[in-house]
Amino acid sequence: MNWLIDLFCGDGVAHMVLLFAIVIALGITLGKIKIGGISLGITFVLFVGILLGHFGLRVNEEILHFMKEFGLILFVYSIGLQVGPGFFSSFKKGGIRLNLLAASVVVLGVIITIILHYVTGIPMQTMVGIMSGAVTNTPGLGAAQQAYYDTHHVGDPTIAMGYAVAYPLAVVGIILSILFIKWIFKIQFNKESDDLNATTGSKDDRIELISLQVTNPAIFGKTIGEIHQLISRKLVVSRVLHAENNQMEIASSRTVLHPNDKIYVATTPNHHEAVTVFVGSAIEMKQKDWDVLDSHLVSRRILITKAGINGKSIRQMSLRTNFGVNITRVNRSGVDLIADPGLHLQVGDRVTVVGDEQAIGSVEKVLGNQMKRLNEPNLVPIFIGIFLGVLLGSIPFAFPGIPQPVKLGLAGGPLIVAILISIFGPKYHLVTYTTMSANLMLREIGICLFLACVGLGAGENFVSTIVNNGGFYWIGLGFIITVVPLLTVGIIGRLGFHLNYYTLMGLLAGSTTDPPALAYSNATASNDAPAVSYATVYPLTMFLRVLLAQLLILFFV
After folding, report:
1. What is the pLDDT of residues 366-411, one digit of tens each?
2. Where is pLDDT greater, at 532 or 504?
3. Residues 325, 251: Cα–Cα separation, whole Å
């Protein structure tokens, strides 16, 4: 029986692996339990770690530190890969307004944290832990712990304890804030849905396929390439039915349009009317009507799986010249894009190709179209990104008035590099594609390791801290940090910016990076407006919370 005692109470490798497995498995299982429709999710791993740590289960301190930091790197890097492609585009149009409001929530939370630090006398490192728990932001916790360790070369368990005591009520507080705003403004869901449909119904960038007849004398005898230069609108002409001889042609930039020719166009709802007026008039011809006119012409979606295509533009591919086919649409991460000649293709894109059956078969060989290749992980770019992220996070930046140089740390560095590499990597032929399941697996393993390590490290003194050092007081402070910024910005967003309530729900959930609040919002709204606004503000919010958590440690500790 000695081997069994050593396994559970020793300090060997088998003991540590077993302990991590128990903490993570039990934490994930208990995290699925819902109380009042709300669950703590994967964060319950932290509480299980605290519980087992309290009862004396230990892990070697150096190994615990390594596993915690490595888990954090995996977590923030996979988040960066996920949100990166939409990071800069989130600032376009109404996204600027939403991001400013979300940033206001972050800044208000920081200001309240500083005020409470001076009013209560609680050390700033503890207040940063409470703040991170109050906004359910685990990367902020990791960044604060890393900054404190870099500065003092020793950890402070009260950072994790503050996070742990503030987190549960924060999940409830975020949802209560959303409900309180609904009550204040007497929100009626039917009216909000009607308003949302009225404002977004015709202003999206989805692909729209239309058939037009050329009746504008200004474009008679001009090529499609010349027409693109004359009208600054998004459109791709895939097929032309010439009125003169009733012959079908796959369109190219050199195709000449004549009076009464019929063309099949891919454009966006925003540009639909302008394109129609410029060309002539709309006609009732669907895709099946075009297909009937030429049985040899087919339209097929092809998956790009060859790494050599990554980063090349549609113009560089010269598919029209080499194979006599056209790319009319590009689907990337579920979103259809206009196949502009300058659009850079990426591994994982699905392109809609129109042409002869035999020619499309040849194009399939060029582009790959093999799902099996996408299932194979591209580990080299991931570890190159982690290497660059750790390197960037370790660079010290000296600022006047700060005794210690500022570092992005092991949370901020990999997050920024992941965002940049997911955006610009394909332009340099770096394959950054990972399946959603692979990204999620990487992210969940990372956060589970991090939370397990934090819990096991904080568990020994957790109960004594709660009972003897004002832990219950911390819960109330965390609730203030949670609710006050959300209610303030929520009221401003509704009164000052007239935000739709569904959009406001996603904004408040995203500004706290809180998945349970998003799940509640999605279930309440029964549309994707909360998810859209959540995704719009999430990248900037995550970045700010990681950065500001470190700055509070460096400025005030």
Report:
1. 888 776 666 666 777 888 888 998 898 888 777 666 556 666 677 6
2. 504
3. 8
Q: Is the pTM of this model over 0.70?
A: no
Q: Are 541 and 513 in contact (CB under 8 A)?
A: yes
| Contact in structure between 517 and 210 (CB atoms under 8 Å) | no
287-295: long-range contacts, CB 8 A cutoff, minimum separation 24: 287/209, 289/211, 290/211, 290/239, 290/241, 290/248, 290/264, 293/241, 293/248, 294/248
Give the list of residues 6+ apart from residue 380 with CB closer than 8 angstroms, or none: none
Average pLDDT, the chain: 79
Provide CB contacts within 8 A for 516, sequence distance 6+: 38, 39, 40, 41, 136, 171, 174, 175
The reported pLDDT for the residue numbered 201 is 45
**Residue 315 neighbours by CB under 8 Å, 6+ apart:** 341, 342
Residue 189 sits at the vertex; the CA angle it makes with 186 and 194, to the nearest 5 degrees, is 120
Q: What is the pLDDT of residue 163?
A: 83
According to the model, what pLDDT value does residue 263 have?
87
Q: What DSSP character marks residue 329?
A: E
All residues at 6 or more sequence positions from 270 whose CB lies less than 8 Å from its CB, including other chains: 202, 203, 204, 205, 234
Domain annotation covers residue 203 = no
Same-domain check for residues 225 and 291:
yes
Boundaries of domain holding 315: 208-373
Is 350 in a helix, a strand, or coil? strand
In three-state secondary structure terms, 473 is: helix
DSSP string, 96-120: HHHHHHHHHHHHHHHHHHHHHHHHH
The span from the CA of 90 to the CA of 532, in Å, is: 10
**Do 314 and 257 lie in a common domain?**
yes
Please count the structural domains in the chain: 2
Which pair of tokens denotes residue 430? 């770096």
At 294 the three-state DSSP class reads coil
Give the pair of three-digit tokens for residue 432: 């950054």
CATH, residue 288? 3.30.70.1450
Shared domain for 104 and 242, answered yes or no, is no
Cα–Cα distance between 57 and 49 in angstroms, integer?
Answer: 9
Instruction: Specify if 436 maps to a domain.
Output: yes
